[in-house]
Amino acid sequence: MSLSEAEAARRPGFPAGALFVLSAGLSWSFTGVFLRLAPDLSSWQFLAWRSLGVACAFALILRARSGGPIQTRFVSTGRIGVIVALSLCMSSIAFIVSMKTTTVANALFLSSCSPLLAALLGRVILGERLSLAQAGSVALGLAGLCVIVGGALEAGSLAGNIMGVITALGFAGASVAMRYGPRRDYSPAVFAYGLMASAISASACVASGATLFPSATGILTAFGAGFLVMGFGFALFLRGAPHVPAAGQTVLAQTETIFGPIWVWLAFGETPARATLVGGAIILAAVVWMAGAGAGPPMARAAT
Fold first, then answer.
1. How far is Cα 262 from Cα 291, in angstroms, rounded to an integer?
2. Fewest Cβ atoms closer than 10 Å to its Cβ: which of 65, 76, 246, 302?
3. Tens digits of per-residue pLDDT, 115-127?
4. d(CA 213, CA 296)
5. C-alpha to C-alpha distance for 123 and 201, rounded to whole angstroms
């Protein structure tokens, strides 16, 4: 932890800020439960309504914060904002497809690699140098990733695991894009990603002949996964993030990765494979190591 981060951790608002970030990850961890509650919805149907829920939630969040019309605020983010929105859109689609085609534990553990992949992309794209400790954490995380994906070869869920890795790449890309661009509020890009993902998913439904209006229960469940789970989580994260160092945000938000598989196991009896638990533990250790080395991107788990 750098000197500035150590000072941030001593601020009066840090304990409350840390609790808000922890709670944000806890809110996001219920995505898998909502997904399993709508088994009759295809990935594209669920995505269309979930993404619309995210867009509606962020419209309310942005309206509550001063700054002018949402469209104007998104335009002000420039091409970096567009890249962020597209990266998050790709990541969100891959995340739900991954959860539909593999276990929730696999999807969450693999997507939690995003801080490690962001460090690699930052080295390649931004020329950011990695210390020996940071490089070691990346190598450890990739080893954990290989354990999970290797275990999936026998379980027959390789495609879902690949989508989990793409999820992490999308978030890593958004994180690097925000570090590349000038410092500004990229929250409008999250609203834009919700609209983009909803439009893409709706188009995919129409192209495949699937209805955009499945059961009312399914629609409410998917919309709630975006509006309640993601929206409430974002509101908590935005409330606590200013009081928590970037590295601390990366670690604290891992409550999503830890509790997500637990909720699905308790509610639906979905037990993670041994390779998933071993590989996930390795990845979580690597993320904590990365954060301790001072390289945790602040947006590492902010928009699944």
1. 24
2. 65
3. 888 888 888 888 8
4. 40
5. 33
